[in-house]
Amino acid sequence: MTARAPRRVVYVATGERHLREAAASLASLRQHEPNLPVTMFVDPAARPTLSNWGVTARTGDAQLEILDLPDSTHSWADKPLALARAQALDEEVLFLDSDTRICGPIGEIFELLEAFDLAAAHAPVRLDRRQPPSLADRVPAAFPELNTGVLAFRRTAAVMRLLERWRRLHLDVLRSIERATVGDQSTFRVALYQSDLRFAVLPPEYNCRFTFPTYVHGPVRILHGRAPDLERIERELNGVSGARVFVPGMGVLTGRGGEATSPAQPPP
After folding, report:
1. Is 43 helix (H, G, I), strand (E, B) or coil?
2. pTM
3. Are 20 and 50 in contact (CB under 8 A)?
4. Are 106 and 33 in contact (CB under 8 A)?
5. Cα 126-127-130 angle, rounded to 5 deg
6. pLDDT by residue (tens digit) across 222-258?
7. At residue 147, what are phi and psi to the nearest 5 degrees?
8. 128-154: pLDDT as tens digits
9. Residues 6+ apart with CB under 8 A from 215
């Protein structure tokens, strides 16, 4: 029997807001996956404030590893910068943005990596309008961006080459005169399209971008977005198990007799 590859969750939390969010995401992860090792990249200046948010790691702690990202830019560039760092190969990694909340077991995401090199969900905004045309035109429009806020991959030589290509491409675009605010998903889209990796597309239940109208069916496992009360949104979304749409400002809509209704306000 082939031994399973080790699994790990990775956060990149540079800046106080992202560190505070990552601490809350980590707490939700521990509720459902207490045994998953975690690596958190921080900028060195943030280390003294880690304990303020309940993030503590002792020397030799196998469950929580805090690594410095000394060349942090406090921008989207920090994500490819951190993930391209050379680490142990043949490890299954789940990268989570700091503004995520884990709502249930997520082992199924790692199981995808038995057949695929990488897994991510479609981005609700298929193509970022901020990207320069010279970048967008490298890939057919029918190949949308993948949201890089929930990104699963197995550390292989091929995947590490993709991550390094992504890092270099992103930095090249940032340094160009075309556009300095390009998002990391635009450059990831090009790097992935130009690779020969096998990738799977996660359903929105595993990356629920609730800040956009979102269709889900079954339990939502990962919420992704900023809101004052993520716990309330989790209760609302998972209060119904069937087909439903979450609309910001309206809540959960379900189909009853051909009409869209909110379960919180059932029809008479």
Report:
1. coil
2. 0.90
3. no
4. yes
5. 145
6. 999 999 999 999 999 999 989 999 999 999 999 764 4
7. -75, 125
8. 887 888 888 899 999 999 999 999 999
9. 204, 243, 244, 245
